[in-house]
Amino acid sequence: MVRFLSERIASAALTVVGASLVAFIILRAVPTNPARLIAGPFASDDVIAEVERALGLDKPIYAQYADYLVGFLSGDWGFSYSTGQPVYSLIAERFPASAELALYAFLFAFVGAVLMTVLVSFTRSRWLDRFLRIFAFVNIGIPPFWVSLLFLMLFFEQLGWFPGPVGRGPAPLEAVTGFYTLDYLLAGDVGGFWTALRHLALPAFALALAPMGFLIRLLRANLLDVTHEPFVTVLHSKGVAPLSVHFRHILPNAFLPTLTAGGLILAQLLGGSVLVERIFVWPGVGTLVIDGILRQDYAVVQAFIMLSAFIYIGVNLLVDIAYGYVDPRVRRS
């Protein structure tokens, strides 16, 4: 097991270095001089040169990359010229909003997909199976921003069940985790918890529908494959109860690909969902990054790319480790 973990951690470290190199090269290839953006369009060449020295842009490219990598790992993510604040502070301030939205969307997608698919598979109802397939196809085919607009028109404007595009709602008096729902619960404020949950519901469901459709299709296909395996026939012939066959033997064998896909989806959601955050005025990282792109504030974009790489690799590392625990064949391989 130690060798398995060592190999996964080494692979994750190499991937981080590769992602940082790609992000660094791409942003250096953009035909924009950060020193010119900071100093202004009417700055003299001497002023531009001074700003370049201050930013380290006069160094060789490999020295700039080393400074960038060391700075990121030590928490120095650069300076946002458009907001006048350190990038680390900006992202740290907004990341809890994106993370809370992503985790709720993931819970809706993953739990909903597993429950519906397993129940439909167990009942073997053709009508329910047909409905599930249509539901999955529709969810995959419609973009989240369009679903967001539909949700707002139906549940906010017509029915008035949920708040409109007003962000996360009122903040808790004391921020402990940065997650409004958890902070309200820790403070014992049940009313505040429900208010935060109602603000989360529409954007989280809008983000969850497409991943839910994908997971339903994936798990359904794997369940069908395992159901026709010879060992399942043997179990039925021995008189093992159908409930036990389905949940103790079929589901564990069919679940591993869904676990892997769930990890990728969670990492993708944690990276921020720009359009949905825009529509619901959600103060997350996605909105910050799109503003950074529009203002050519590349320090923000560069830090976001690196952070996304770390999230992807970290989540995949956890999934690999979980995979090894669930399936001993993976450890042995």
TrEMBL record:
Matching SUPFAM superfamilies: MetI-like
Compartments reported by the entry: Cell membrane
Keyword Transmembrane included in the entry's annotation: yes
Annotated TM spans: 12-30, 101-122, 134-156, 200-219, 254-280, 300-326
ABC transmembrane type-1 domain sequence ranges: 95-319
The entry's keywords: Cell membrane, Membrane, Transmembrane, Transmembrane helix, Transport
InterPro entries noted in UniProt: BPD_transp_1_N, MetI-like, MetI-like_sf
Membrane-topology descriptor: Multi-pass membrane protein
Entry protein name: ABC transporter permease
The species this protein was found in: Roseitalea porphyridii
